[in-house]
Design goal:
By secondary structure, this protein is mostly beta strands. Helices cover about 10% and strands about 35% of the residues. α4 packs across α6.
């Protein structure tokens, strides 16, 4: 009798949490290969009415080594630098620190992922551990993330509600039976999604191609794309993966097995590193070795060769008119101005998104020192933007920053 009651409760949760999802069977093809060789200048003013800069509060106790994870819930931002999870107000003022590094209850070794559930539970992944907190930073409990000891644990995942998660299975071995799972916090698997692409690797090792996937929510639908796959899927109310977009890379495609080897057999190749989707746009973070899209020589700093943004190019797909364009790459040695959307609003650095919040706001992060250097550059000083008063505001912000300050968030909301 208890088994029947348990089964009914699970079925109620699974069906109830997604009952309002509508199915869309249309599949759209997006041609990458035909567009990436002909990039255009794309200006921010054509896509947004403004750029907002948010300096993250700095003190001796609140020093971020970078921004590696960012999540938003209501008026709060949760930010990780791998070692800490810090809670800020949306204006960048410090609120509190969530947990701390260590091995005791409520402590984490590293912060590899932070996600807020629909009901406001904070989940922090620390290697194979999953820690749950409330929004005040109170530790609730610790779980073990699903995985195979010594081989992998799920790294790309998203809460579907307060009891279920959707996550990608890293295929390090080449022989995993499933590509993704729906599971609960206790590690019980509810649904499995079959892996149809298997291979024999030269050696089993940690590989970001196998370990990372785009999993995000937009308009209450969960989307899923593996780096090694050319298709973006969405999760239906029956827990099925249906294709939504197919990205055609043509001759630039990397053979599947080559993703897990030391190099590709293609002379010219590319892959989609990340996708940032809003209501009306898909922004494509594309990485390639196409010669005309790369800088021929590295930048030398303190005797060290550094290859800043030598192989990244940003594509923008407008859904309404089904048009894809890539933003051209500049020849400048300033890495903040090399690739991304041209900032003709205030003359600031090119915009290259790293996060999406609230289905509409795109975020880029900039180190305080780099922003100060950019504003002090001759190219910025001589540039005449559309809004000179906004340029002046950016100059004032840079003047107030210290070189050692925490990063600055750059927020852009695209026009509808």
């Amino acid at each position: 009798m208890m088994d029947i009651v348990y089964a009914f409760c699970v079925l109620f949760i699974l069906v109830g949490c997604t009952r309002n999802i509508k199915r869309d069977n249309r599949v759209t093809a997006i041609d990458i290969e035909s567009k990436v060789y002909n990039p255009q200048k794309i200006y921010l003013s054509d896509l947004t009415e403004g750029v907002e800069y948010i300096p993250l509060n700095t003190s001796e106790d609140i020093f971020l080594r970078g921004v590696y994870q960012l999540s938003k819930y209501k008026e709060f931002l949760f930010i990780s630098d791998l070692n800490n999870c810090i809670l800020y107000n949306i204006d960048g003022t410090f609120v509190t620190k969530i947990g701390r590094q260590g091995s005791g209850p409520g402590e984490y070794r590293y912060v590899s992922r932070i996600v807020i559930s629909p009901a406001g539970r904070l989940y922090i992944q620390s290697l194979s551990d999953l820690l749950e907190y409330d929004l005040n930073g109170k530790f609730i409990r610790k779980y073990k993330q699903i995985g195979k000891p010594g081989l992998w644990s799920i790294q790309s995942w998203l809460p579907l509600n307060d009891s279920l998660f959707f996550g990608q299975i890293p295929n390090f071995s080449g022989n995993e039976d499933s590509r993704a799972l729906v599971y609960d916090v206790y590690g019980n698997i509810k649904f499995e999604f079959k892996n149809y692409r298997k291979f024999q690797p030269q050696r089993i090792e940690i590989n970001n191609f196998a370990n990372q996937a785009n999993i995000y929510s937009l308009n209450n639908l969960v989307y899923f794309k593996e780096r090694v796959n050319d298709t973006l899927f969405y999760l239906t109310d029956k827990f099925e993966l249906h294709p939504k977009y197919v990205f055609n890379l043509g001759n630039l495609s990397i053979p599947y097995n080559d993703f897990f080897q030391d190099k590709s057999s293609n002379n010219q190749f590319g892959y989609i590193n990340n996708i940032f989707e809003t209501e009306n746009y898909i922004l494509i973070d594309f990485i390639s070795n196409i010669p005309q899209l790369k800088r021929p020589e590295p930048v030398v700093e303190d005797g060290i060769e550094k290859w800043y943004f030598t192989n990244k190019i940003l594509g923008i797909y407008q859904k309404e008119i089904a048009r894809l364009e890539f933003s051209s790459i500049s020849k400048t040695e300033d890495k903040l101005s090399r690739t991304g959307l041209y900032n003709d609003i205030d003359g600031g650095p090119k915009f290259y998104p790293e996060y999406v919040i609230e289905d509409s706001i795109l975020i880029m992060t900039i180190e305080a020192l780099r922003l100060k250097e950019y504003v002090a550059s001759e190219s910025f000083k001589t540039y005449i933007p559309k809004f000179p008063n906004k340029k002046k505001e950016l100059e004032m912000l840079a003047a107030c920053l210290k070189e050692t300050d925490n990063p600055v968030l750059v927020l852009v909301t695209f026009k509808k």
